Each structure stands twice: as structure tokens, then as C-alpha cells.
TrEMBL record, chain A:
<keyword id="KW-0539">Nucleus</keyword>
<dbReference type="Pfam" id="PF03931">
    <property type="entry name" value="Skp1_POZ"/>
</dbReference>
<feature type="domain" description="SKP1 component POZ">
    <location>
        <begin position="6"/>
        <end position="66"/>
    </location>
</feature>
<comment type="pathway">
    <text>Protein modification; protein ubiquitination.</text>
</comment>
<dbReference type="GO" id="GO:0006511">
    <property type="term" value="P:ubiquitin-dependent protein catabolic process"/>
</dbReference>
<dbReference type="GO" id="GO:0009867">
    <property type="term" value="P:jasmonic acid mediated signaling pathway"/>
</dbReference>
<dbReference type="InterPro" id="IPR016073">
    <property type="entry name" value="Skp1_comp_POZ"/>
</dbReference>
<dbReference type="InterPro" id="IPR001232">
    <property type="entry name" value="SKP1-like"/>
</dbReference>
<protein>
    <recommendedName>
        <fullName>Elongin-C</fullName>
    </recommendedName>
</protein>
UniProtKB/TrEMBL annotation, chain B:
<protein>
    <submittedName>
        <fullName>F-box/LRR protein</fullName>
    </submittedName>
</protein>
Amino acid sequence: MKKEDTVKLISAEGFEFVISKEAAMVSQTIRNMLTSPGGFAETEHGEVTFPEISTTILEKICQYFYWSLQYSRGKETDFHIEPELTLELMMAANYLHT
Amino acid sequence: MPVLRSRVIPPTKPEIEPLKHPANKIEPATPARTWDTTRPASSGDDDGGDAGRKRKLDVSENLLGLEGGDREGFLNLRSGKKVIKRIGETDGGNSVDGKEKEKGKEKMDFEEVRMLREVSKDGVDVDKLDIKQNADGSCNEKRRRRFGREEKGKAKLIDEHSTVNGSEFINLDLELGTKHSEENVGSVSEPRKEQRVDKKSSVRLSESRMEQFRDIARQNASKFAYFNVEENHLSDDNERLVVADGEVEREIEDWPGPFSTAMKIVRDREKKLNGGQRIGSLDPKKKSNSSILWIPRKGQRQGPKLIIPSLKELSMKILVQNADAITSLEHVPDALRHKLSFMLCDSRQMNSHFLNLLFSGSPTEIRLRDCSWLTEQEFTKAFVSCDTKNLTVLQLDRCGRCMPDYILLSTLASSLNSLPSLTTLSICGACRISDVGFKALVTSAPALRSINLSQCSLLSSTSVDILADKLGSFIQELYINDCQSLNAMLILPALRKLKHLEVLSVAGIETVTDEFVRGFVYACGHNMKELILTDCVKLTDFSLKVIAETCPRLCTLDLSNLYKLTDFGIGYLANGCQAIQTLKLCRNAFSDEAIAAFLETAGEPLKELSLNNVRKVADNTALSLAKRSNKLVNLDLSWCRNLSDEALGLIVDSCLSLRMLKLFGCSQITNAFLDGHSNPDVQIIGLKMSPVLEHIKVPDFHEGPLHYSSVLSSL
């Protein structure tokens, strides 16, 4: 993947997840951050930091992005979520509008 | 000043004779007038047909300065007008105003006449009066009534029944096109002398009149076939209001204002469409009455938009299944808590474990839409551990089982100021709370702005008084649906004190009458944003009239099951309330044209419209919807069987904001519409085997404590 097509999501612990822009745009919040005119640092560097979201949750969210792209292309599978993660995942998903 | 006719009636024969001659000079221009002049001279019997003659008699005898010309004025009509049989009292000889009813002994159902009277002296323009036959008595007050001139082609709805004892007016609609109807007004019986004629549509009428009456009878027969117990008690109720300020009643199309213009436009449009050939019929074999042009989309539609389940929903589903495993709801935002508790209550998995989670800590909002599983002990235990100082919203619906007075006193109302920040409280279904408990509750929640007391059957008008006294200047939302012990007129004085009220729901309270509505909106109407009047079946067009006059900011109006409302009511609403966003009509008797005219006039801001079981809805409404309703999101056209595939196709393809369309009971809709419409976003519910419960309105979990204002707005 070229650098221009990717976005870096950084968790609270500092882990960096590099995903494609198309996948990141599944989240309405990230989409607004990356596309809004306003000279945000995120737009320029292509990096978004989430100090409240832990690494395991952010990883799960990135998995969801790719699953969602797959689903929209027709491959409809189940997305499994470990029950221990659900509460935090729900709150993160609520924040990210996804 | 008003001259009572009764004192001047000379019933003697000889006097009648000379008077007839002047009358005979008048050449009638309408058939009705021949009736007047062909009446035989025999008097003495106070028969129905003699009314006019007697009146003339009266007038001349009154010596009110009327000359012979005046009497002629009775029958001196403009061409094309109908004659009014009787005149009212004269007023200084200038014009006849006011109206008198005959004290008839029988039902005067089928007679309506109009009279034009020309003032002789001043040459002042004619007052047109409309006098109704009233079974009961005559009106003491004088009223000036002006009526529309020309006949239009349509019949108006007639809603009134007449009873012998009832003091009502009968709104009739002559097929020949005189449209007239009036609100129900009370009338005070005035003792009349016996000579006062008994106007029957009897002997002396000409054939044309008889035909008219027969037509009227045909129209009204079905109405009388339906017996309504309530109609017999009408005279006891204070429903019929006297229009004391001399208002006039006009035909719809002669009203000033946009509604009448819209009606004309709608009628013209319909004539144009129907005059042309039948177009737009998809299936030539099928008998389609629609004249709407709509071409369904050819080819396969992509199918409904693929809805990808969001991560939030997925995780919430799993949470709901494993609710017992949740250990804490700390840091979970209120909207998510509400959604979780909503889903748990719906699936009956709500239990005291989750309840304790909700109550633990210092919660700000708690919403439980179903507390029927909750016992008194569990509730007390959970509540005691709750720190209520930050609680702004508390919803404990269907809490009847766990909330008798003593529990209330030991929990919610345990001390003065035990709920210091509480803004919104809902205790629907708290059927065991009495006035005592309610008083304690009110004193412990001094910041209350919205209160929902639906189905609290033990609360009486004392409670409403207490509410008005303690919180009267703050309360902005009040719901008292189905509170059976509340009598509308008894609580009216208290309700009038709620000056900042924005939302009032009195659904299901049968004692709500026109009088109540008038009294309430005159005091509080300027702030009203939402009025729910479902099932208050005694209401008539008069209520809509006063609402339109006094509630300009009305956003939501619910008129379900108010069968007495007629097109006039919709007309008032269209002219007066131009900001309505949600309108719920169900089983109302409005006509297609009236609804279409309403949409043309005031339909732009509409977001949610329900025409459930408004059976007359047809092409006119469809055309107006397509033209005007750009913002419409929710539309309910269930049971509207006069709507064709084309009409619905036009609506769906034109209302681009439409997301939900309900079509329960519309068996006339075929796949031509379902597969042929081009709107990808709309969800059509009620026809095929689609999941039905998904359309039920889910509350907005992000909504604040108040619907129309922010809590911080200072009063």
C-alpha cells in the first residue's frame, strides 16, 4: 500500500495501527477528521491519536473496518466479538460513530 | 334595543291580507321565492310555510321604521341566491341581524334556508343571514351572520345530529351546492309564543324545495342509522359554546386566508385532471380511477440499500445477552445506558442486577420503560443506594406494582429536596399513588419541569391543584393520559396557571370538551408546542378554531379518533397553525380536498404525517403531498383504500426525505407500485411479510430532559 492511501491510528498505549484510508473512512468521526477543511494535524500527517481507546479495543475496531468493507462487497459473514470487550467496544464505537 | 318578536305578533286574519299584496309584487328570481308568494292567504294556522309571512307581519307591526320596501326586501333577492325563509330581529331598521330559532316541537332536520335582505333605507348592502331550524329554542343574542355567495360544486361534511332535546344546530349541505356549515353553538331557549311558526318542511314548499330536502334526507339517512348514546346527553354537557362575540360563519371558500385559496386550487386541479382522459393507468385491464400520471421505473431495482450492522449495534446485542456479566456502567454515557435498558426491558431480561448498576454511583439519567417486573423490596433496596443529587431524568414507567404511597414516601419523596436536580419525571402507570403521595413527590422535586402521570388512576383534581400551586410557573410538559379520576373542567383552573406549558397530553380523558380547550388555550396557548387530544371524542371544530387562533407555535398535534371534526376544522388549522411538524390524524372524517388544501397551505414543515383510516384520502392528497412535502420523513397511509398505485408511486418518488411509509390495510396496492418506485431509501411497512415491530417508534436516546426547550433556559 502506498503511503498516501493509509492512515495511522494510535492507541492510548502508543501502539500504531496502519490501515487503508478506505477502511478508516467507515468511521464517520475519522472521515470527518481526515476530510474536513481546516488544516487539522490529522489531515496533514495522516495520523489520528486516541488517548481513551486501549490497544485491544483499537485492534478490534480496525478488524471491524475491514469486515465492514467485505460485507458491503457482498461477502456477508459474522463478526465475532469477545464478550469481555463489548462494553468498552460499544463506547469506543459510539465515539467513533461506527 | 333588540326587539323581541314575540310581543308583536298579531295573528289576526284581516291584517294579513293587506300585507300580502306588497309581497306579491315581488317577482321571485329563484324557485324558492315562488314558495313565498304562492302561499295561500289562509292564516290562523301557524304552519311551517307561513314563516316568512309572519315575519313580515312582525316587522311591519314593530314599527321599526321599516317601510313597505323593507318587507319587499325580504324577497328581493339577487339572482342566483337562495331565499332565507326567516329573518332575524331587526336592528334599528337598518339591517336584520341576529338569528332566531323557532321553538319547534319536532325535528327540523332537513331544512336550511338563507335569506338575503336588503336594507331599504340606506341602501346598505345586504346582510345575508342564515337561519337554522333549531328544534329547541331560539337564541337570545343577536348575531350577524354572513354567508358565502356562490354555490360551488361540492358537498361539505355534515357532522351534527339533531335531537329533540339537544340544543344544536344542524349543519346541512344542500346538494345543489349551497355550502354551509357552522359550529356547534349553544342556544338559550327563549320562550316563544305559540303563534311562532313551526317551520316544517311541509306543505307549502314547491317541488324544487322538496327535492332538495329529499336529497338532504338521503345524505343524512346513513348518519341517523348510527346511534350514538352520547348524542342524547348533549344538552346536559356544556359542549355547545355560544359564540358570543358576534362572529360570523362563512363558507370555507369565502374565508379570508390561504386555506380557501388552496381549496379552490385543489378543486380546479381536480376538475382539470378528471376532465381529461384517463391517463397513467398501468394496467388497462385494471379499473383504475386515478388520473395521476406516474410511470414506474423499468428494470430491476438494485434492491434495498445494504445496511451494514454497525459496531455499536453488534456490541450492544452481545451486551444485552450477557447483561448479568456486566459489573459496572461507570463512564458509559447516558444515551447508551438508555438504549441498553430499553433493549433489556423489551426482551424481558431486565432484572435487579442491572437496576442496581443503573442506580449505583451518582447517575444523571435513569430511564426504565417497563418496571412491571420490579418488586417493592428490590426497588427500595436499589433506590436507597442511589445518590440522587445529580439525577435530572427519572423514568419509571409501568411502576404500579412497586410504587404505592408508602414506598414513594420512603424512596423518592423521602425528604424535602430528595430529588434536587430532577427535571423530568415519568411515573406512567403508577396506579397505586394517591394524592397524598403525589403531594410529597412534588415537594421533594422542586426543579421539576416535565411530568408524566399517564394512567395514574387514583390521582384526582387535588393533585393537579397541588402541581399548579407548587410548580405552576416551571412546568413545561404535562402528560395526564387516561387519568380516569380527573375531570377536565375541574382541573381547568389549575391548568390555566401553567403559563409556561409547552406540551399537554389529555389523551383518553373523555370529559375534555370544547369548553375545556377554549379555556385552556386562551390562557396558555401562546407557548404550546404539542397538544395530544387523542380520544377526546367530544371535541368539535370549535376547538380547532380556538387552537388555530391562540397557538401559533404548535409543532405537534394529535387528533386521532375525533370523529366530529369536519373540513372546517382543518381549514382553521391551516390558516392558523403554520408550523406544524407532526400531525396525527386517525379515523377523522376529513375529505380529500380539505387534506389536500391543508397540505398546500401549511404542509411544508411537516415531518411526520399520519392519515391512518382517513378514508377519503385520494388523488388530491397525493398530488399535494408530492408537491409540498419535501421534509416529510414518516407517512402513514394505512387503510386509505382510495389511493392507487399511481398515487403512491407519485408520493414516494417525489417526497425525497421519506424514510418510512406505512400501508397497513391497503389491499389495493400491487407490485406495480412496490417494485416500480424509484426511492431507494424509503421503507414500506405493512404490505408484505416484513418485520412489523421494527417500525415502532423508538425513543431518541439522545434527547434531553425536555422536548422543546433546553433545561438551562431561564423562565
